[in-house]
Amino acid sequence: MTSRDDILASIQANLPQVDRPLPVVPLFDNNAPASLLSTFKPSLERMGGIFLDPPDSGDPLAPVRAKIASAKIVCSMVPEIAGNRDIAGVGAPQDLADVDLAIVRASFAVAETGSVLLTETDLSINALAYLAQHLIVLLDPADIAVNLHHAYRRPEFRDRHYASFHTGPSATADIEGVLIHGAQGVRSLSVLPIARTP
Amino acid sequence: MSISPEQLLDNSMLHPEVLAGEDAYGIYRNGHRLDHAEGASKPLRSRPEPQPRGAKVHGNRPVNQAEAAGRFIAAPEHEKMHDERLWDLRQKRDREMHHIPEWEELRALASAIKEHTLTHLDEYLDQFETRARANGIHVHWARDAAEHNRIVHGILSDHGAKSLIKSKSMLTEECGFRAYMASVGIEVVETDLGERIQQLDKEDPSHVVVPAVHKLRTDVANVFANTIGTDPDNSDVHYLAEAQREATRPLILAADAGMTGGNFVVAETGTFVVCTNEGNADLSANVPKLHIASIGIEKIIPRLEHLAVLVRLLSRSALGSPMTQYTSHFRGPRAGGEMHVVLVDNGRSERLGLEEFWTSLKCIRCGACMNTCPVYRRSGGLSYGATYSGPIGLIIDPTFNARKYSNLPFASSLNGSCTNVCPVKINIHEQIYAWRRELVKRHDVPLVKKAAMKAAGELLSRPIAYRAAIASADVALAHLPRFVIYNGLNAWGKHREVPHPPKQTFHSWYKANRGGKQ
Asked: Which positions in chain B touch A126 (Cβ < 8 Å)?
């Protein structure tokens, strides 16, 4: 008998003889806010993320350009901004270890938690979002789900192999509860609301 | 007799300089500063309190939790920090709970989802295996810890892998995975900060979410000074965390394989989900080519819609944050990568058949029961001498070894706080009580405890005798000399002060004030 069959047989022999129907899960969206972006912003900031307010006029990417100015190696996955490290030329994830700043676009965001979803399509090389020192995420305000119940109805969880909610930057409070940003992954995560270019 | 503040000031026992009070410049009025032993140029630092170590474990012999707890309590700085830190997490959890109007509904849903899944566990595991394989994941099954370790070793050997980076996983602790890997010459590096501290200090994790929560920053400074070469006199937390990041990063970049656990497994999509705050699981999974995930069979849920309920509860219950910084969904290997899932039983299928204890398999390892438990907060997780400590440990550990962990179900005041905060509604304190009965039946309870319990049982079954006993006990407590209460025969007097007896019991107050006024 294989271990698989052994384990399944043991489960069948021990299954509790009680009736436990599967509940229906509501969407809990009765009190959905009018502006999802204005709910997303404080949620993101609470988790240590930086919300980049777009300028009233002029270059909408100005806050991103300001951050790039102090970075040596920039890897961009978005057409709006050019970096100086071409991801197409990167062979192994390890080769991204020297990236100072990565720029990606989120598949979507969640207002309730302040999370942005990044998939293998958004990242090209998944490790980009963890090995870079800082991460900037572009987010189309039209791509915000009200809460996690709505989020899990999105197609990304069925057609991607990797999909990760980022809720602020890498963090730890493992030593006496002192909060540290940049535990192992990125030291900062900034989100700029800007519509997708068609 | 009470003393008024005026009388106190008149008391000639107080030093005249103290009585004179301090002037605006901190100089006492007679021209001298009261500094006693404090140095004038540099404050004298007391020697850092040594870190109390956990329970002494000797093979299968019953772990003496009370003895280890006694040593933890005897280290006041450690006990205070531990107690306050965990209570802070408990309060943050409460704040989050009040933010979510549907909190209780979510708990009820989570409980129902897990109970449904556990009562159809074979079907959902089968469904997960089919979907995961279709997505390109290699699925393995391990009956026990030894088989788990052999399987992982086999996968690593097939790839010629000699080094492994891993994120925190209680299951691998349960399997003695690190010790096994050391015995076959494979280097394992923990990437979670707390877990790395514990690994470098050759200790087990003391908490399922915050593994090094029992350590002061000075303890961490000692460990890092001895292992990664930090300045032994610098215990600044930012400095220590940064030093660990810099020391671990080259190991992450050079590792041959990565390992994670799994918080949830979704049957309908063949997905497993890993929740971390440091991003270390995503590094372990995404930097090396090979990703192995070890997951307990009870982690499965039917569909994505159920994941929403559990993810909303997990971090709020654990740390009082709405979500972990990273919640990552793995549905298949990345391009050019290889992904293995090891589904581990290790006693879980057998636990499913225990009528009073099977619902303990609902546990999502948030640690909320530990954070609220007065015994855990004051004794530290390592005092339990088991992989799982705190209230959930008291009901899981005896299923692994009823003799070794026979003392643990007694490390509880049965106050029920654990049950109240449990996000999946496990009746933890009732199961702790059920284990006590079970252990007495199995004769696995020490004689002294058994005699005391028998006496208590007889007393509690007779209300009139109980009330008489309480009344006389309170009178006795108020008047007995200390040596009668605090001696070796009274377990309650060990390591703790017996509370001040009330002047009147509630029952006698009720009889005097409300009796007859129905």
From this structure: 282, 285-286, 334
